[in-house]
Amino acid sequence: MTSHDIYLLSPEISVAALAVIVLLLDLVVIKKGYLAAVAIVGLAVPLGLSLSLWFSGLDGAASVENDGILATTLVVDKFSLYFKFLLLAMTAIVLLISSDYVRRLPQFQGEYYALILFALSGMMLLSSTTELITLYIALELTALPIAALAAFLRDGRSSESGLKFLVLSGVSSALLLYGMVLVYGFTGTTVLSEIATRIAEIPLSGEEPFGAYALALGSILIIAGFGFKITAFPFQMWVPDVYEGAPTPVTAFLSVASKAAGFAVVLRVFYEAFPLDALSIEWSALFAILAALSMSIGNLVAIPQTNIKRMLAYSTVAHAGYIMVGIAAAASRTASDQPAFGPSGVLFYLGGYALMNLAAFSAVIAISNRIESDRIQDYAGMGRRAPFPAAVLAFAMVSLTGVPPTVGFMAKIYIFGSAVNSDLAWLAVVGGINSVLSAYYYVRVIKVMYLSEPISDEPVSSGLAVRLAMFATILGVLILGLYPRPLMEFARNAAEILF
Q1: Is residue 416 within 8 Å of residue 325, measured between CB atoms?
Q2: What are the beta bridge partners of residue 129?
Q3: Residue 166's Cα: distance from chain center in Å?
Q4: C-alpha to C-alpha distance for 56 and 136, rounded to whole angstroms
Q5: What's the CA gap between 158 and 161, in Å, rounded?
Q6: pTM as predicted
Q7: pLDDT tens-digit profile of 175-188?
Q8: Is the alpha carbon torsion for 189, 324, 407, 387 positive or negative?
Q9: Which DSSP letter does residue 209 get?
Q10: Structure-derived torsion over alpha carbons of residues 459, 464, 465, 469, reported in degrees to the nearest 10
Q11: What are phi and psi of 218, to 5 degrees?
Q12: Tens digit of pLDDT for each residue in 51-64?
């Protein structure tokens, strides 16, 4: 491995090194609050290295030159760097909102922060992988720390959530590996670009269509494996229990960072390995069906939920459906069309969704950590008892519904517009109906906080770090709702590499 190879991997290496530093500091530092500060400030190093890569010869959709031993397994381009920036920002917010929560874990704070950072390194690596074996290793580097984090509270529900995540993650990995084996057996390679070349060279129809069937089955199994990571229906069965039992900051981390990394690898694999002109009809239709089912099932099951974490769990299933609209839209375009805005819509939506969901979870932590309850009915009167967290949660609910002037509205307009432009107007209609349907359970939370009588008159306070996270995220939701162009242009430039 050359020094240039190390430079290309420097953001991931620095994150892993930061995790080790936090573990070592935990052995000698008495005041554990310093660990969070070190972890958050330390993220400036991978951020700086990612910025250095961004300005290292990137021109348009080009990538940093890579001719070492990582040439066929790793790429550094604007697409991967977009996700590195996004994941670093998400993790910084999660570390901020963890500062109050981890006081319940006086003996394990170093391990908690280190596991989050190790998971982050795997997620960042996922966005750059261009080879199936490397991709699988990065997935496992992401999944194993998250399984440990889900069980971190070490009570009945938390242990159950960690075990359920670990078992079902193993099942999804098995499906993914079976799909990869079939693709490898048909094409004879695990490199994404070479898979596309082999598919273009080998006829997929004729008197012996076995190869086409094997490739189609491999693609379906790969989608099933990724479906677990992005919480798409019908692979979402783990979501409500894991979200409810895991520590709330870990739930927030799962809901945004894991989803962003999952969609990054889905976009990379299906746009680079499976040519649009050869296979777009098959997997476009499949993603369109999964999108419609995820939106509908997620919203319908969220309505009767009485626990706010379970409600947000089914909400994230619905939002996975909204995001898949963009994937289906771009894949359904014809060769004569202009490049679709589907992938850039996905990237924009992921950025906006991260702000919305982290704002919601920041407020939930600020409230639930004090009242020691996640039941929606116990949020009664929070408009008076906790004015700022209640206002943040209410505005986040409005944005998740898709009401202007929030980033949620702009994200849905962008992604549903790409569906209409790609002759998938029916999918945009399904999305619009589901957005209206989701208003029922989002607005119910607002109603309870502002119109129900409080159980107690005691004020609900929150720590400085949590208030800072709430302020930063909700400000982003508002600013990008009023002026979304910078993020749109950033997402569009990052998505150009896929065409």
Answers
A1: yes
A2: 74
A3: 18
A4: 28
A5: 5
A6: 0.90
A7: 889 888 888 888 88
A8: negative
A9: T
A10: 70
A11: -60, -40
A12: 988 887 655 445 55
